[in-house]
Amino acid sequence: MILGLTGGIATGKSTVVSVFRAYGFPIVDGDVIARKIVEPNQAGLQAIVAHFGEGILLPNGHLDRKQLGSIIFADEQKRQQLDALLDPILRQSITAQIHQYHDAPLVIADVPLLFEANYEQFMDKIAVVYVPETVQLERLMNRDTLTKEQAQQRIASQLPIEEKKQRADIVFDNQGSIAQTKENVKSWLEAQKFI
Predict the structure, then answer these.
(1) Residue 12 in marked binding region
(2) pLDDT, mean over the chain
(3) Domains in the chain, start-ordered, CATH in brackets?
(4) What pLDDT, in 10s, does the model give residues 69-85?
């Protein structure tokens, strides 16, 4: 089974992923892949520089994430342009990595923008890590030391968490303690006979 795992920014996806990892299931991490494709000499970074210019590079040739973030989170059109540049490169890398694990009984595809980028077709089931938006906003402000406005901009750049919850096959509610969330994931794995 290929389980697509998503949620919203600061909903606690990494807590859920840690449970799958602890049981030895392969994780295809969309964020890790997204970071790799924008490293120096990678196709993603070359595409960004060609579009946004050298000003988004640090002196050492790496991507200036803060600079790029300030551009794309303030301008919806620029964010869409960035997504369009990176999407084909990212999609190819994610699907190639999923196929590497074709022998595993369960593969976790951790894709933050699973619904937004139409990855449903590659998944057998989709799980959403859920907290209400008010909790999401508070956690994001605390985690990334953002103002309320900055946190709201980032949350608004994704599909609303309530809509993701509606579209999910499985919902891992992360409003309780970390221990409760981990227990929920373990119970699901047991019910599905993966452990």
Answers:
(1) yes
(2) 95
(3) 1-26+104-188 (3.40.50.300), 31-100 (no CATH)
(4) 889 988 889 989 998 99
